[in-house]
Amino acid sequence: MQYFKISIKVILLALVTLTLASCKKDPIENPAVSALSFVNAAAGAPDLRVFIGQNQANNDIFNFGKNIGYLNAYSGEREVSFFQGSEKKATGKFNLRDGRFYSLFLAGKWPETELVLLQDSLTRPAANKAHIRFVNMSKDAGLLNLGLTNGSTLVSEKAYKAASDYIEVNGNAAYTFVIRNHAALTDTVSIPAVNLEAGHSYTIWAKGLKTEVGNDALGVAVIKNY
């Protein structure tokens, strides 16, 4: 099976088509389909090739901080592997449920990595709203809060590899996110204002290491899931 980047609308249309086909008098046996995205959250990781089974899932650069949008994949147990050149560096098997959407994070500090699979939400936000969740992928930053530069806290006390539930915020608005150490409650890292579009879902994630500098330093990134 070859993998392609696809939009949420295309995936949902495919799922509806499969459902309608199953209602016919002589139903066609259709394969169960899931959607899988990838995030390179391993500080110091080089450009990697990603495989689902025997099929390469990416052509673009996939080093630390990069992400790959949703790809279609057969449901059931799937093996995902990460290669540096021809050498396999990380691998894992995951059970993907039919019609579900997932994000797979390559976490840790290169080359000591681990894989973290999160199930994503396709629940549509209310009118003029957006959904966000916070994921802590900083191995040495301790418990983190997600907040805003005005001093407010949106998500509290997330440990390494933990993800919050999705929360609803106003859409079509700009937010300046910060992460704070839960114990100190002082701003640790902030990013320039990000505009969140109404009707969409986002992942805000802590990346890098507090003991590093440059590209691998502790930071915040935003992924538009759909």
From TrEMBL:
- Domain DUF4397: residue ranges: 35-145
| Pfam families documented for this protein | DUF4397
Q: Does the keyword Signal apply?
A: yes
What's in the keyword line of the UniProt record?
Signal
InterPro entries, alphabetically?
DUF4397
Top-level lineage group? Bacteria
What does UniProt give as the signal peptide span? 1-21
What protein does this entry describe?
A: DUF4397 domain-containing protein
Annotated source species:
Pedobacter insulae
